[in-house]
Structure to design on (265 residues):
């Protein structure tokens, strides 16, 4: 398989991981080391949902002239490289630069997209993200595939993001990562005025519980079932309330489009 990045083609290989397959992001593209002594944070994009309430694949629904999921892809790409002065993540990979980046005491790993949809895989490859393809039906399967992958063995924690939150900002994600840097044994959860939402960062000590989830359940189950005490969950204030909005219906799309018009004209 070939991927074009920053005007250059780079051949990527693939290998089996659990029941899924992981594409791209081979070790040669990684830095020799993450930040010495800094926690390594995995970035997991969960893009496997069937969008039953929406009626079609909402992650590829056009929003402001591009697929909805492209917004969070672009935000993560900028998160890794904007302060490095080297453009987006895909441009840096094409230039032979390290795609990992230390921020505020945290080393971000290359984002890992877990999906069943070929169109999401193609979009992720445009950003030079890793991709796991699978055909398992449940949300718990998506989490298990991510945490059973080779890259996850290096992570000290994992930020789980959904592809249907297009308004998430780089600034809010940096706040969330900074919380993990300061309190690496606690769960950090994006919120607004005390109302908890997504994304969520789970420390590595909770990976076994997450991998053992069953059915159409995500990490919210272990946040609510008493396994994690309330004092172990840190709520991190988002920049704006609409960053926590997700899209499940046509009305949700229209609400986001209104915000985009107000902000960008």
């Amino acid at each position: 398989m070939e991927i074009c990045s920053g005007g250059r083609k780079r051949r990527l290989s693939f290998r089996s991981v659990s029941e899924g397959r992981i594409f791209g992001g081979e070790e040669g593209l990684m830095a020799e080391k993450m930040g010495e002594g800094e926690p390594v944070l995995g970035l997991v994009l969960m893009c496997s949902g069937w969008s039953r309430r929406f009626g079609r694949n909402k992650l590829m629904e056009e929003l402001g002239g591009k697929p909805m999921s492209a917004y969070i892809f672009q935000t993560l790409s900028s998160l890794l490289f904007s302060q490095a002065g080297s453009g987006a993540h895909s441009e840096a990979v094409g230039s032979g630069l390290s795609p990992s980046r230390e921020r505020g005491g945290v080393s971000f790993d290359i984002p890992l997209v877990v999906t069943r949809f070929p169109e999401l895989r193609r979009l992720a490859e445009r950003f030079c993200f890793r991709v796991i393809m699978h055909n398992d039906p449940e949300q718990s399967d998506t989490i298990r595939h991510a945490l059973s992958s080779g890259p996850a063995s290096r992570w000290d924690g994992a930020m789980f993001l959904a592809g249907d939150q297009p308004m998430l900002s780089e600034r809010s994600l940096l706040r969330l990562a900074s919380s993990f840097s300061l309190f690496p044994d606690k769960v950090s959860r994006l919120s607004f005025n005390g109302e908890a939402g997504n994304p969520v960062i789970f420390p590595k000590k909770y990976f076994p519980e997450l991998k053992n989830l069953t059915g159409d359940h995500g990490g919210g189950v272990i946040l609510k079932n008493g396994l994690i005490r309330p004092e172990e969950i840190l709520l991190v204030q988002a920049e704006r309330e609409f960053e926590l909005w997700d899209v499940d219906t046509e009305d949700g799309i229209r609400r986001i489009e209104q915000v985009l018009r107000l902000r960008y004209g």
